Amino acid sequence: MAKRRFDEEAANAPRPKRRRIGDAPPLGVRRSERIRQLNLENERAEQELQRLELQHQERQRQRPERRQPMRRLAEMVDREPPVLPPPPPANIVGNLLWGRLGKQPYWPAMVAVDEDGLYFKQKMTANGVLRRQFYVEWLADGRRSWVGATYLAPFERPGNPTPEGLRNTLREWVLNHRKCKDSVKALKIPRRLQGKIDAAIEEALELQDNFH
Length: 212
Description:
The radius of gyration is 42 Å and the shape is elongated. About 45% of the residues lie in helices and about 15% in strands. The protein is built from six helices and six strands. Strands 1, 2, 3, 4, 5 and 6 form a six-stranded antiparallel sheet that branches. The N and C termini lie far apart (about 150 Å). By secondary structure, it is an alpha+beta fold.
């Protein structure tokens, strides 16, 4: 009798619901999972901070020491002025040269004197590079300008004093002494400037004939 009553009560008792795939986990499981995720996030954040700190320290070690402005000024005042080489003699005024400006081709020019009576100037940069410039007049053009010495080439008269012969002599000199890309590129004369440069060469040859 008692066994029958127990069986009836067990049959009438509510059965636990079966958990289906996709159902949310129990509250305790969800809370422990969230705590674990927070701990992982905190650990990752600490690792990222440590990485950034080490990276910052490495940059500080590689960065050169910055000198204070007053210290740099004192060094500049105490530093002796650079010794510049003597300027070229004044009799170079009137000498013929090949020169170029910017991306323009080489053009016959003559050493001239500016409004202040200067034909040459030089200075030493902070990096110890000597900058030398000559004041020239562009033949068959009339304009004048200061040109760096590295943009000039000697105007050498070949045995065959023709525009083509002078250009060949210039090409040989540039290829031997000015091997930079811009200097070699300046040997090419655009068709629109061919006539003007030939006229400048003829004027330079006439000047040489008159002086000699």
